[in-house]
Amino acid sequence: MIFSPKTQNKQIGEIAIRIFRACTELGIRSVAIYSEQDKMHMHRLKADEAYLIGAGLAPVQAYLNIPEIVRIAKENDVDAIHPGYGFLSERSDFCRTCIDNNVKFIGPSPDIMARMGDKVEARKAAIEAGVHVVPGTDNPITSVDEAMEFVRKHKLPIIFKAAYGGGGRGMRVVRKESELVENFERASSEAL
User: Is the pTM of this model over 0.85?
Assistant: First the structure.
């Protein structure tokens, strides 16, 4: 099993270490990937094996390098990948790539991920299923003016949440109207 940590977490690899412990108890070999910047992090040391990913890249780009993750898995007889949370855990293309390369993906199917990874589609599915949701937009907002219109109708506070943001990326709370422009721009920038 290969595990990809979430680097923005201050306790990097905590989930990976828990999974590695369970693997050990079940007699399953654990494999970690790590970026150059994370070479001394605990998740790398607790896995049975660990492989550098994305040499020369920043951690986020390294951990999102789908072709390299699958290459490492295939070259090292990894039969399953747990994507962690955030990042690749919400990427249906990653799930599909694993399946297409005969590597089990530990998580939902690509179709479910495609619908639930997109926050707008997930919201629509919840509404269709009769789940009560907080007020929000039916489609992504693309301008500060649209955000201001929503605030006028629903009042503050609001939360900007990127449609494809994962693990809190692209999420900003706005409590004062004076914070709206800056938080919209920051949420948009992080989502990219």
Answer: no
